[in-house]
Every structure is written in structure tokens, then in C-alpha cells.
Specification:
- By secondary structure, the protein is an alpha+beta fold.
- The chain has 2 domains: 3-93, Endonuclease I-creI, CATH 3.10.28.10; 105-189, Endonuclease I-creI (Roll), CATH 3.10.28.
- 35% of the residues lie in helices and 25% in strands.
- The protein contains 7 helices and 10 strands.
- The strands form 3 sheets. Strands 1-2-4-3 form a 4-stranded antiparallel beta sheet. It has a 4-stranded antiparallel beta sheet with strand order 7-8-10-9.
- The chain is globular and about 45 Å long.
- The two termini are 33 Å apart.
Length: 208
């Protein structure tokens, strides 16, 4: 597995991806997205194409809460010892965690960009960004916050919202975040970043 692929896998696992254990040393990667994000899924597969042999499947799921069906796309990788190493890092007793090694894993802006494209949102009215996260333990959250500060000088605030835990990036922090990830955001996911970003008064960060 190349370094770029490792960075991509970490971003995917921080986001929506699931690593399924297959034996003592191996695991497979499962990716799911809404039909609207099919191109994004195809891009992810292209980054890890030597780990995928299956085709993307179009599926339908009934959402009981909203009483409606929706269409989504899914693909699973082959079983691999490379992915098994990540499964052992990010899962304890089948529960996703943020490992203490995250500071060495979350260094590449590509990782941050994939994580944001998976679970992040930019709100143009307030010029702030959110990244929703799983209901991690306090230790996992601390590991995550430390790595964001150490590697990207980002200091989001953790809050509990109606949909769950969320990292909230202020106007200043959002400007920094967008500057870091913007060149990695693919065209079909550009709706998640500002259309016409401008500099802020306090730190003069300029998006171009």
C-alpha cells in the first residue's frame, strides 16, 4: 500500500467507511454513499483500485424514521492484510475508536479532505464548518483534537447537536480548514466548500 493510499484509507475510516474483520489478520473496506455521491465513490475506488475487484452496486434502503426509501451505492474491497492493520487500529471490540497513533496518521491534507467530504459541512450564512463524528470515548476525542492542533493548527470546538457529536470550526478556523483541503476536494463534492470564499478581517486568509 502506498503512502497516498494509506492517507486515503485513514480519511475514509474517520468518515463513513467501515472495516470488516475477515480472519485474524485481514479486513475488507466497505464504502457506501447516496446515489448523488456516486462519482465521489468512484473516485475513492480509483485511489485504491488494486484493492477492489467488485463492481459498484446500486441498492435501495427503507428508512423507518422518515418512512421513505432511498437509493445508495456500495462497494466492498477484497480482504487484505494491509486493511487488517487499519482495522486493528481503528476498532476495539468491533467499536470504532480514534487510536493514540492518530497524530502520525492524520498528517496529509488529503486525509483531512476525505474526512471532510464524508462528514463535513460548510454553512455559507455563518461561514462556519462542521464535521460530525461518532459517539467516541473522551480519550478518542482528545486524541483527535490533539492531532488536528499539532498537524494543522486547527482548534475546533466539540458540541453535542441533535444529530450527534460535532466538531465546530469558527469563521477563522473554517478559513484555515478550507485553505488546507480545497485543492483535494473533487468537483462533484465542491458544494461542500465556499463558492466565493473571501479573506477574513482578523487573519487575512485568502481563498483563491
Amino acid at each position: 500500500m502506498t503512502q497516498k493510499q494509506k492517507s486515503a484509507v485513514v480519511g475514509m475510516v474517520l468518515g463513513d467507511a467501515y472495516l470488516q474483520k475477515t480472519g485474524s489478520q485481514n479486513a475488507r473496506l466497505r464504502l457506501e454513499h447516496s446515489i448523488r455521491q456516486k462519482e465521489y465513490l468512484e473516485w475513492k475506488v480509483s485511489l485504491l483500485k488494486n484493492y477492489f475487484q467488485d463492481k459498484i452496486h446500486l441498492l435501495e434502503r427503507f428508512h423507518k424514521k422518515w418512512n421513505k426509501a432511498y437509493t445508495y451505492v456500495r462497494i466492498q474491497s477484497t480482504s487484505s492484510s494491509d486493511l487488517g492493520k487499519f482495522q486493528r487500529l481503528f476498532y476495539k471490540d468491533s467499536i470504532k475508536v480514534i487510536p493514540k497513533e492518530i497524530a502520525t496518521l492524520l498528517k496529509n491534507p488529503l486525509t483531512l479532505a476525505i474526512w471532510f467530504m464524508d462528514d463535513g459541512y460548510y454553512y455559507p450564512r455563518d461561514k462556519i464548518s462542521y464535521i460530525y463524528i461518532s459517539n467516541f470515548s473522551q480519550e478518542s476525542i482528545d486524541n483527535l483534537l490533539v492531532s488536528l492542533k499539532e498537524n494543522f493548527n486547527l482548534s475546533p470546538i466539540l458540541k453535542m447537536k441533535r444529530k450527534g457529536l460535532v466538531l465546530i470550526f469558527s469563521v477563522i478556523e473554517s478559513a484555515k480548514l478550507m485553505q488546507i483541503i480545497k485543492k483535494f476536494v473533487i468537483p462533484s463534492m465542491s458544494y461542500k466548500i465556499p463558492l466565493d470564499p473571501v479573506s477574513t478581517d482578523r487573519n487575512h486568509i485568502q481563498f483563491t
